[in-house]
Amino acid sequence: MKNKPIIALCIGIISGAALASVIIWIWQTLNGNISMMGFFVTIIIAGGIFIFCQVQKQRAVQKATKANSFKLEKYQAYYKLFSSWMVLRNKGRLLSEYFADHNLKNVAIYGLGRLGLCLYEELKSSSINVKYAIDVDAAHFSYLDLKVVSPQDKLEAVDAIIVTPVFEYKKIVDELRVKTSCQIVNLEDVISSL
């Protein structure tokens, strides 16, 4: 979590200031300069600040844990998918078989992360025509010998769009349905069907 050092620093500063205030108030009270009522008010304020800091710290830890849990789940899903794909490759099976069997000759790839780039490399040497790719960072892929468009751009007609960010598949399908009526295929389904 990026804010963790800042939160720890703030908690340390506030806790230190609260502790210093309590020590000063105790010293002043023992010397008779401050009434007992002032002493108790100071303790209550310092205790409130300490409890507030602890609650904020716990919330930050829970938020970070939840974010890390989501990332871990996502990476585990991608790892399993890659593993299944490599098992198919080791058996001599190619993903192009799926598209040929389903008469999907012209396709687009949604997402040019690691899965998308590997899929493109596999399909470009097959009879399946990868007409273009769709990626939110389209300009980043100018080095590819492939047209790459943004999800906001107009989408050319293809037989199917293959979605490689399988963890966000449902969200992506909802976005694509507004723009196209072609078949939308989840890469995970392609791999599991072979």
**Number of domains as seen in the coordinates:** 2
CATH topology of the largest domain: Rossmann fold
CATH architecture annotation of the largest domain: 3-Layer(aba) Sandwich
Estimate the helix proportion, in percent.
55-70%
Core attributes:
5 strands; Rossmann fold; 2 domains; 194 residues; 5-stranded parallel sheet; single chain; alpha/beta
What is the secondary structure topology, with strand pairs?
Layout: H1 4-30, H2 36-90, H3 96-101, E1 106-110, H4 114-124, E2 129-134, E3 148-149, E4 160-163, H5 169-177, E5 183-186, H6 187-193
Parallel strand pairs: 1-2, 1-4, 2-3, 4-5
Write structural notes for this entry.
By secondary structure, the chain is of the alpha/beta class. The chain folds into 2 domains: about 5-90, no CATH class; about 95-194, Rossmann fold (3-Layer(aba) Sandwich). The protein has 6 helices and 5 strands, in the order αααβαβββαβα. It has helices at about 5-30, 35-90, 95-100, 115-125, 170-175, 185-194, and strands spanning about 105-110, 130-135, 150, 160-165, 185. A 5-stranded parallel beta sheet has the order 3-2-1-4-5, with helices on both faces. Helix 1 (about 5-30) packs antiparallel against helix 2. The longest helix is centred in the N-terminal third of the chain and has 55 residues, at about 35-90. The two termini are about 40 Å apart.
